[in-house]
Amino acid sequence: MSSDTAADRTSVSTHILDTSVGRPAEGVALTLSVRSGFEGAWTAHGASKTDADGRCKDLPALPEGTTHVRLDFETEAYFSAHQQSSNKQAEEQQDAPALRDSGAFFPEVAITFAVKPGEHYHVPLLLNPFGYSVYRGS
């Protein structure tokens, strides 16, 4: 019989808010990778896309022994889809640069963080065409 219970599992969730438009970022693909130890090799462990609320709640629980997690957000496709409205906003602000053809200054965002067994980690990404920030949420 396994002693593994839901309370013993380490889990991760995330959401993305596009701060340039004040709305959730829907449809952003992301991957979750894990490693054991600072020098361990990264292993892909899950993938998903943000829902209409910009949330991703379906990532798998982390394997036992995981010490570090990396979330890779594919932001280029999201910004490419929203490039026209972003460039219009940039034109209205004389000092704001327009986006390149790809639609993204940051074509991907990689967030790496340490984890402890049995805890839940909610890692929100606040995103705009020219910057981002993250924090540990609840």
TrEMBL record:
Similarity annotation: Belongs to the transthyretin family. 5-hydroxyisourate hydrolase subfamily.
InterPro entries reported in the protein's UniProt record: Hydroxyisourate_hydrolase, Transthyretin/HIU_hydrolase_d, Transthyretin/HIU_hydrolase_sf
Organism: Streptomyces olivaceiscleroticus
Annotated Transthyretin/hydroxyisourate hydrolase domain residues: 12-137
Subunit text: Homotetramer.
Keyword terms, alphabetized: Hydrolase, Purine metabolism
Listed Gene3D superfamilies: Transthyretin/hydroxyisourate hydrolase domain (2.60.40.180)
The reaction(s) this protein catalyses: 5-hydroxyisourate + H2O = 5-hydroxy-2-oxo-4-ureido-2,5-dihydro-1H-imidazole-5-carboxylate + H(+)
SUPFAM superfamilies listed in its UniProt record: Transthyretin (synonym: prealbumin)
Transmembrane as UniProt keyword: no
Name under which the protein is recorded: 5-hydroxyisourate hydrolase
UniProt EC number: 3.5.2.17
GO molecular-function terms, A-Z: hydrolase activity
KW Hydrolase (keyword) present: yes
Job of this protein: Catalyzes the hydrolysis of 5-hydroxyisourate (HIU) to 2-oxo-4-hydroxy-4-carboxy-5-ureidoimidazoline (OHCU).
